[in-house]
Amino acid sequence: MPFWQQDLESMSQEQIQKLQLKKIQNQVSKLYKDNTFFKKKLDDIQVKPGDIKSLEDVKYIPFTYKEDLRNNYPTGLVCGNWDNVIRIHMTSGTTGVPVAMAYTKNDLDVWADCMARNFVAGGLHSGDIVQQAHGLGLFTGGLGFHYGLERVGAKVIPTGSGGTERQLRLMKEWGTTVFTGTPSYALYLAEIAMEKGIDPVKDLKLRLGFHGGEPCTDEMRRRINERLGYTARGGGMRRCYGLTEMGGPMSMDCHYATGIHLWADHYMVEVINPDTGEYTPPGEPGELVLSNLSFEAMPILRYRTGDRVIVDFSPCPCGRTHPRITNFLGRVDDMLLVSGTNVFPSQVENVLLQQSELSENWQLMVGDNKGLHTLRVEVEPMPGVIISEKYIKDLEGKLHDFLEIRCKVVIMPVGSLARFEGKAVRVVDERKKI
Amino acid sequence: MPFWQQDLESMSQEQIQKLQLKKIQNQVSKLYKDNTFFKKKLDDIQVKPGDIKSLEDVKYIPFTYKEDLRNNYPTGLVCGNWDNVIRIHMTSGTTGVPVAMAYTKNDLDVWADCMARNFVAGGLHSGDIVQQAHGLGLFTGGLGFHYGLERVGAKVIPTGSGGTERQLRLMKEWGTTVFTGTPSYALYLAEIAMEKGIDPVKDLKLRLGFHGGEPCTDEMRRRINERLGYTARGGGMRRCYGLTEMGGPMSMDCHYATGIHLWADHYMVEVINPDTGEYTPPGEPGELVLSNLSFEAMPILRYRTGDRVIVDFSPCPCGRTHPRITNFLGRVDDMLLVSGTNVFPSQVENVLLQQSELSENWQLMVGDNKGLHTLRVEVEPMPGVIISEKYIKDLEGKLHDFLEIRCKVVIMPVGSLARFEGKAVRVVDERKKI
């Protein structure tokens, strides 16, 4: 399998560490000089840029939290010359102040290179015809994928999300070989294809899918592969990773699928105990902490991602030497606290999708019955399948075993639950907000 | 006012002609060698590439029609190495087979440069913060604007269309100085701003707008300027021009607003009598015929745009020496044939928007009453304005004078007609299709 930037992707550990030290020293100096927020943070703990003499000393740099980005919205964390900024992206901000990221031309180049590395590691080449169905706009996902695909030199058909029948028509007309979009949209595409009498495996030439925007379980990926007749890469949970605070989507698994490659020449990876802030022993789970080593406009250092992961720092069989997220144990943001129990929606999905009788259309309703939290799983069966009362009871038992909390299962008519062309919304929390 | 590529934009006529001859000879040779459709066309009339010895000989190259692009969809007109194609755009194809365009990296660069020239000629600079609200996707408009803005080095906030309240919030938070989107969306933005108690003139920092995607009359532009407190450029009808067959949006007016600059180093301009195919005398109206001199992937030569224009080949006061469309008399596609009379929707808009009592929310219903075509103009008044029966009669009289056909005016309740975040749909043709 080819590389996008072989020299950089297969650097020795020593080279990586040397480069990282130089780059983080540079970022700290620049931020200290240019950014009042960062300078105050360092001054408060009486650290000077010159104190970072080795990678050991990185632990003296204060953490950055999501709240820091929100409190300094929109431009409080911009560093260097504002005139060089040529792009702004941000989160939707539906749950509060958005998190924004500013980019120079060079930042966009770094980002596109990281995405190009991911795509090439996953098997994309310049002969591919790609339908790019992540929505193009303020979110980092769409343009992040677009510029990465363009950098590889693939033929990009920038459909954006939606227009499912047209997506299928274009796949036939152009002989599209690669699809990019959310995993739930890939499954919806397969559903509409079948309705329209198109057999994706026989009638389309898809060979690869790159999925971002939302997590998907191994079982969901298996269904995508089976129904669209391609190999799905990315798609969260050990396969795709990124966040606006680090610039957007940045990492994916390669064709060996041994974990998500984090590009260490551009991002420094630390894994800490979220309670103490100390490093966890190698191979142990902990919170992922990332530093952006290359961005000029808004370099965020030691960002507390809130994501619980296991990182493997040994080389991958593919020849890439950078660290990999081998286990993604959950994003703290996605976790629900239900009557004192932690529930990850991905756990529910894992149980549901192991049932061949059930479709991938489901939602989790969290309610409140006089102070007692309730969980209700609504799920559609596969078309034509009749679900018995006993089956429902068994499924409730499995969910209880797995979640350690009781939840009610309701079988919904086929086609009654919402479909999603972008990110799927699986959780409806009807509890009163305090 | 600065230039983007001063040397190229202010070449002498002699230099332009010399360059054009070299480039069109190159395109003809390449197409003849690489494209069977074009080769057959030339062979049929016994013309060889070597026969094009001067610009006089360009008239021997056969015209290309929209039907040629449709009949050869998707890739029949691609020229050269398909491997070098990295982007595909196309029209919606709602009225039939889409028109598609393929681009190499170099083609995208040429396109971005043309757009950058337009923006700089209109007053944009790298310090501007731009909210880009043309929808990003398969249409050429969105990514065409995006790459041009990026090339200038302006700070692009790629909102895409829609999310109007959020657009306004971002304008306040980021101090946005430039808005790009359809003219009708600009007016809708102003409407929502007023509803939300935001005075765009006082509360926002907008200073320029670049509008594409649909024509707008001078009166509509005046209203945009007044309500959003900025200078609107582009927006069709003597201000912005482009078509998928030539790669997308490509031309706009400069700050002198003397006509749309057509970049003659990349596009050859001819004006012909649509019936005879002969050149019209300089300064006379005729059909615009364009040849793409620089594109590699799919160069279209002598394309019959169907647009009736007057072109001025003399230099503009801004110093740019390329030809300008000084009068845009109508796009044949937009023309309605109503009981034997040609009606352009822009004529209706022109009459309506001269009435200060009327809003810019209107639509034209074309009906059929036992074989007799009918025209009904539905329009909302400005909020709070009461329209009398006499006023309606007078307006019907004005429309009759202007259109030379009778039409009925119906005043609609404020807020009852559709608003558009993208291209406005003004004509509803309810006649039976034959």
Secondary-structure-based class of chain A equals alpha/beta
Instruction: State the low-pLDDT regions of chain A, or none.
Output: none
- What is the molecular shape of chain A? globular
Biggest interchain interface, per-side counts:
A-B, 32 and 31 residues
Distance between the termini of chain A: 53 Å
Strand count, sense and barrel status of the largest sheet of chain A are: 5 strands, parallel
Oligomerization? homodimer
Record the strand order, biggest sheet of chain A.
4-3-5-6-7
Helix content of chain A: 25-40%
Q: Helical segment tally of chain A?
A: 12
Number of domains of chain A: 2
User: Radius of gyration of chain A, rounded?
Assistant: 22 Å
Q: What is the CATH first-level class name of the largest domain in chain A?
A: Alpha Beta
Q: Tell me the number of strands of chain A.
A: 20
β-sheet strand percentage of chain A: 15-25%
Mean pLDDT of chain A: 92
At CATH level 3, the topology of the largest domain in chain A is Rossmann fold
Output the CATH homologous superfamily of the largest domain in chain A: ANL, N-terminal domain
Domain AMP-dependent ligase C-terminal (chains A, B): 340-431
Domain AMP-dependent synthetase/ligase (chains A, B): 77-291
Function (chains A, B): Catalyzes the activation of phenylacetic acid (PA) to phenylacetyl-CoA (PA-CoA).
EC number (chains A, B): 6.2.1.30
